[in-house]
Amino acid sequence: MRFDMQGNQLSENNLTKDIPERLITISMSKAGKEYSLKYLMASHHVMTDGTDYFYLGEAFYPTYTTTRVGNMVTTVFNGYAYTHAVLAKFNEQGELIWDNCFKMEPGNRPMYVKRFISCTMMGKDVKLIFTDGKWLVSKLFRNTDGSVLKDRKTERLETDDADETVKKVRNSNSLHWYDDNFIVYGTQIVKNKETGERRKVFSITKYTIK
């Protein structure tokens, strides 16, 4: 899905401030007043609080690797890189009430269009969670104005064993379970601090946003 957003001025507002420059295409009209913003979005199902509507989308772009053997050049798809997400609130008439943009830096590039973020509207406010490699990111947005009430960005995924540390996280995912509770799961490579032994484990962690 591709979005085109046009306005008389490309200001640093909530919707544009965290978008990397490589994703922004600015096209000026002859009058010098028209700008265009284009990027790919992985859209979630539209949410509602019974009155207004909430859109959540994750921005991404395809990456490629190029190899040359003699006179032959081969370009191969190398997965989708995710950069940021957009949360926006609209009224019944489709008018924008507020929007908020925040960075995403997943540790892997999926070969398919993936939705990293899990979200819920329990208690009216918007709560979401996603994993960035070995790190867990959770956010709580105020329903009325979109302001961030809670923002935890550097919460490391650890094991229950004090003698072990997480060295690598593979295929980490999250999902909304019930109420304010989420589940974070995935494969971890853990290392014993004393013996240096490494092992692969499947981890499931309950996480609550209040």
Key descriptive features of the protein:
210 residues; 6-stranded antiparallel beta sheet; 13 strands
What does it look like?
The structure is a single chain. By secondary structure, this protein is mainly beta. It has no helices and 13 strands. Strands 1, 2, 3, 4, 5 and 6 form a 6-stranded antiparallel beta sheet that branches. A 4-stranded antiparallel beta sheet has the order 7-8-9-10, with no helix packed on it. The N terminus is likely disordered.
- SSE pattern, N- to C-terminal: EEEEEEEEEEEEE
What overall form do the CA principal axes indicate? flat
Instruction: Give the low-pLDDT segments.
Output: 1-13, 22-31
How would a textbook summarize the main sheet?
6 strands, antiparallel
State the helix count: 0
Instruction: Indicate the structural class.
Output: mainly beta
Distance between the termini: 33 Å
What radius of gyration results from the CA coordinates? 20 Å
- Count of extended strands: 13
Report strand %.
over 45%
Helix share of residues? Answer: under 10%
Task: Quote the average pLDDT.
Answer: 80
Topology (elements, then pairings):
Elements: E1 2-7, E2 35-43, E3 47-48, E4 53-69, E5 72-90, E6 96-103, E7 118-120, E8 126-132, E9 135-141, E10 148-156, E11 164-178, E12 181-192, E13 198-208
Antiparallel strand pairs: 1-2, 2-4, 3-4, 4-5, 5-6, 7-8, 8-9, 9-10, 11-12, 12-13
